[in-house]
Known about the structure:
The chain has helices at residues 12-39, 44-80; strands at residues 3-5, 8-10. By secondary structure, the protein is mainly alpha-helical. It has one domain (12-79). A two-stranded antiparallel sheet has the order 1-2. Helix 1 runs antiparallel to helix 2. The two termini are 25 Å apart. 7% of the residues are buried.
Amino acid sequence: MPKELYGITFLPGDFVSLFSLFFDNLSTLLGFAGAILGVSQTSTVLATIVYERIIPAAGLMLFFGNCYYTYQAIRMRKKYGKPYTAQP
């Protein structure tokens, strides 16, 4: 059942695309963080920077960026009348 919020119609596929892209990007980020920390096993400063600064900031950026991609896909669907995904 489509939901409408602020004049934008959301379909179930919009939310699936949003969360699929978010978790794909987040898992890639965590994989790279693990690789970085695996190379320098003795650096607690690097581990602190990665876990307390980089991962939280990138997680927020991924979520809000993917929300914007979803918004763009919805705008294009309304404009052209064809389905689009939330991927860049």
